[in-house]
Amino acid sequence: MKSRLNEVERREQMENTSFEKVLIFHADRCTGCKVCEMACSMAKQSTYNPKKSYIKILKNQEMDVNIAALDMKCDFCNECVEWCTSGAIRFVSVGEAAIIRKENQLGIFPAPMLSYA
Ligand code: SF4
Ligand code: SF4
Question: Which ligand is nearest to the CA of 35?
């Protein structure tokens, strides 16, 4: 029930906000290495510090799966995607993201945009 609520919240968030691109996350490919976080923090803050990254890889302990989320400050520069050797993340158009969401494939979903403030 909790995850269903989160899904509804995420969809509402996506539909009510207009973004240039959407990050698609392949949970089955993500190793949790956090190289994407390091790449982002270096690209945007000139430091290797995952805490300063605009992409976050979060571990859902209950389901034992990784989940990606993007800070709203992300400018879609693609640096994190280029450093991910697992092919677990990629940016697509908003239209393509809507199709992916509709297909509802297991472990493949648009990452929510969050404001970490
Ligand atoms: S998305 Fe890619 S780079 Fe980031 S933690 Fe997962 S496997 Fe590593
Ligand atoms: S696309 Fe966004 S999350 Fe990825 S490196 Fe660029 S600013 Fe960071």
Answer: 1
Query: Which pLDDT tens digit goes with each residue over 104-114?
Result: 888 999 999 88
Q: pTM for the full model?
A: 0.82
β 113-114/65-71 pair status: parallel
The atom number, within ligand 2, closest to the CA of 71 reads 3
Residue-wise pLDDT tens digits, 62-111: 888 999 999 999 999 999 999 999 999 999 999 999 999 999 888 999 99
Best CATH choice for the domain 2-114 from the list 3.30.70, 1.10.10, 1.10.150, 3.40.50: 3.30.70
